[in-house]
Specification:
single chain; mainly alpha
């Protein structure tokens, strides 16, 4: 060998597309997703509990008022 560097030769396809990814690749940032602090199911449960508590208090007051 006469000092030449032998490397792999290029192979180009006879048909189809040649894809080249030259260029600056940069990070793509997307919008942050805002998550609710409480799930909808938890909110519904808390509303139901609050309604039941108020109904319970009202029934207790009605019973007291009726017995007095």
């Amino acid at each position: 060998m006469s000092g030449e560097k032998v490397g792999p030769s290029e192979v180009l396809p006879r048909a189809g597309l040649v894809v080249s990814e030259k260029g600056n690749l940069t990070e793509v940032l997307c919008k942050p997703k805002i998550l609710p602090l409480k799930s909808i199911t938890l909110q519904k449960l808390e509303e139901m509990e609050a309604r039941l508590a108020s109904l319970s208090k009202q029934q207790q007051q009605d019973q007291r008022d009726g017995s007095v």
